[in-house]
């Protein structure tokens, strides 16, 4: 049976990154037939007026410039849609995630694509995917009052319809049952 993993790393550090090591260890433990790699050390573009305007235009009616404005977003949304499991390695910088992770969040939150508005409020369009977030921090404890990363990601993924979200750190990664 096919199992696709989207492996995202958000640390600015290439060498000696704890979150990169943790996310790689997790991916290695998964029974993936395909791993899609997204390294946010190669930053994504930030949202601008052209991007926002283009999202409100049906794909078939977009100009070439509008399609170009959404090209990166379209690619990373396709990666997310294709994945059965999403593994994110991220440090906590200044009580939250790195700006590059927020840029990824902004690029994949697409009305009509990854969520939609209904008369009962927003509804996530992604489902049946497991999300594992490997968090490294030199001082902010996961779940502490100073941890703004994990609550943000939990709400964000829930907004997209992804309810199976697990946060791990160096102490728990060795014993985590990743396939259950």
UniProtKB/TrEMBL annotation:
<protein>
    <recommendedName>
        <fullName>FMN dependent NADH:quinone oxidoreductase</fullName>
        <ecNumber>1.6.5.-</ecNumber>
        <ecNumber>1.7.1.17</ecNumber>
    </recommendedName>
</protein>
<comment type="similarity">
    <text>Belongs to the azoreductase type 1 family.</text>
</comment>
<dbReference type="InterPro" id="IPR003680">
    <property type="entry name" value="Flavodoxin_fold"/>
</dbReference>
<comment type="subunit">
    <text>Homodimer.</text>
</comment>
<keyword id="KW-0560">Oxidoreductase</keyword>
<dbReference type="InterPro" id="IPR023048">
    <property type="entry name" value="NADH:quinone_OxRdtase_FMN_depd"/>
</dbReference>
<feature type="binding site">
    <location>
        <begin position="17"/>
        <end position="19"/>
    </location>
    <ligand>
        <name>FMN</name>
    </ligand>
</feature>
<feature type="binding site">
    <location>
        <position position="11"/>
    </location>
    <ligand>
        <name>FMN</name>
    </ligand>
</feature>
<comment type="function">
    <text>Quinone reductase that provides resistance to thiol-specific stress caused by electrophilic quinones.</text>
</comment>
<keyword id="KW-0520">NAD</keyword>
<dbReference type="InterPro" id="IPR029039">
    <property type="entry name" value="Flavoprotein-like_sf"/>
</dbReference>
<dbReference type="InterPro" id="IPR050104">
    <property type="entry name" value="FMN-dep_NADH:Q_OxRdtase_AzoR1"/>
</dbReference>
<feature type="domain" description="Flavodoxin-like fold">
    <location>
        <begin position="4"/>
        <end position="173"/>
    </location>
</feature>
<keyword id="KW-0288">FMN</keyword>
<comment type="function">
    <text>Also exhibits azoreductase activity. Catalyzes the reductive cleavage of the azo bond in aromatic azo compounds to the corresponding amines.</text>
</comment>
<dbReference type="Pfam" id="PF02525">
    <property type="entry name" value="Flavodoxin_2"/>
</dbReference>
<keyword id="KW-0285">Flavoprotein</keyword>
């Amino acid at each position: 049976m096919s199992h696709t993993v989207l492996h995202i790393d958000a640390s600015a550090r290439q060498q000696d990154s704890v979150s990169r090591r943790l996310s790689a260890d997790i991916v290695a433990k998964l029974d993936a037939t395909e791993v899609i790699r997204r390294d946010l050390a190669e930053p994504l573009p930030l949202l601008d007026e052209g991007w926002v305007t283009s999202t409100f235009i049906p794909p078939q009616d977009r100009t070439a410039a509008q399609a170009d404005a959404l090209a990166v977003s379209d690619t990373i949304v396709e990666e997310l849609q294709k994945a059965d499991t999403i593994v994110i390695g991220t440090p906590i910088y200044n009580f939250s995630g790195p700006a590059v992770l927020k840029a990824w969040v902004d690029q994949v939150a697409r009305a009509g694509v990854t969520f939609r508005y209904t008369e009962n409020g927003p509804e996530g369009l992604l489902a049946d995917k497991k999300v594992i977030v490997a968090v490294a921090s030199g001082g902010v404890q996961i779940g502490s009052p100073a941890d703004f990363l994990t609550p943000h990601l939990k709400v964000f993924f829930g907004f997209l319809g992804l309810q199976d979200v697990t946060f791990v750190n160096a102490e728990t990664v060795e014993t985590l049952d990743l396939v259950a």
